[in-house]
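Predict structure. Chain length: 154.
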Amino acid sequence: MLALLAPVVLLLNGLAAGVMLGTLLGGWPLLAALPADRYVEAYAFLATRYDPAMPICLLGTLAGDVTLASLSSVGSHPAARALFLVAAALAVTTVAISVSKNVPTNRWIQSVDPDAPPADLPAKKAAWGVWNRRRSLVAIAALLVNCAALSALL
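Prediction complete.
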């Protein structure tokens, strides 16, 4: 079971971390450079493109890491178990940031009229960028820890 589930978790985590790295390198710099009206249109378009893939990848990573940690405790893989638990903690942190910080902004932006952007748009835009950077770095850290955990199983 470990040999089957570990690569699946690595794939799910890698997809999520890759998308988030893409937002750090290209998506966010583009959005941040747009004027308010264009930002609202572009953001509303992009925000809907990642559902349901990102939630599936992040929640699959979390569930998989918890399962792998419990399966590793049955065998003789204490290092892998500890690493899968750390990766699970990082995955849950990524989900928590997404749900509490980024998703509410995604929903709010979709209700904004691009022809009359609200005065607080620049502050919300900046806050989204900060939280996106944090969750991206945490997701990438989870991937690195999952790679180490898989290596500990080998």
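Summary: Residues 111 and 121 are 12 Å apart (CA to CA).
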